[in-house]
Design a protein that fits this description.
Radius of gyration: 18 Å
Number of strands: 15
Structural class: alpha/beta
Shape: globular
Strand order of the largest sheet: 6-5-4-9-12-14-15
Order of helices and strands: HEHHEEHHEHEHEEEHEEEHEEEHE
Length: about 250
């Protein structure tokens, strides 16, 4: 994927549906070039072509999600890593920004990483980090482990900080997830009452999904980029969540 195709993918994922003419104007290239790029991205499974436009896929494929807003997510991961002390044991639940955090911490080599994400464990397999992969039912697309066995593992393992992934945030619903099973695992993590940190880029604000991820008051820290809505940041701060803008 070249830089123009990466930019196209980011725009499509943010807007959900974009006309070819809009992409042509935005990127300063011909409609023919945009269509060629969209064909490539569709063949690779990143988006869906419709007449005269492109549509985002609601996908849990981690490789696809990692490419969207990559620079922002990496910057957030770097800032999140600064919150982790040497020799600390952290649980990293999942999500693309958290995968980058796991890689950053693993390359540091002074942290024990617990995760229910097979994708994260595979991503950092070549590092010298101490990795504990939790058991459970394997979700093929998102590569997460979920279910009663995963909950049991979480209940019987100890960590000082947990990093959680989300799919949406709205003041009316709090933090939400598309996946009921992953939300259940997040609830088990939050129930441990450790330092719970939500790491997410600002595109998740204003989105509502079916499954709530614990009470907002159980989140200690939100780390997001400075494009997050001011009203939501103020609301979270007033409700006891420490907000860090990357």
């Amino acid at each position: 994927m070249n830089s123009r195709q990466n930019e196209i993918l980011q725009v499509v994922n943010e807007r959900k549906r974009v006309q070819v003419t809009e992409l042509s104007d935005l990127l300063g290239v011909s409609g023919v070039t945009i269509r060629q790029d969209l064909n490539v991205l569709e063949q690779q499974g990143y988006l869906k072509r419709v007449h005269g436009a492109a549509m985002a896929l609601q996908s849990d494929d981690m490789d696809s999600r990692l490419t969207v807003r990559f620079d922002i997510k990496q910057a957030l991961a770097n800032k999140a890593a600064d919150l982790v002390a040497a020799n600390e044991t952290v649980l990293i639940e999942g999500g693309s920004a958290n995968a980058l955090l796991a890689r950053t911490l693993a390359e540091r080599g002074d942290v024990t990483i617990i995760t229910p994400s097979a994708y994260i464990a595979h991503l950092i397999r070549s590092t010298s980090a101490n990795i504990i992969l939790l058991g459970g039912v394997y979700q093929h697309q998102g590569e997460s482990l979920v279910g009663p066995l995963t909950r049991l593992c979480i209940e019987n393992i100890h960590f000082s900080t947990a990093f959680l992934g989300i799919d949406g945030y709205h003041q009316d619903t709090g933090f939400t997830s598309r996946d009921m099973m992953r939300a259940d695992i997040a609830a088990a993590i939050i129930a441990k009452k450790r330092r719970n940190i939500v790491l997410t880029d600002s595109s998740k604000f204003g989105q509502i999904y079916p499954s709530a991820i614990g009470p907002t008051s159980a989140v200690s820290v939100l780390l997001t980029d400075d494009a997050a809505p001011e009203g939501d940041i103020e609301y979270l701060s007033q409700n006891g969540v420490s907000v860090i803008l990357g």
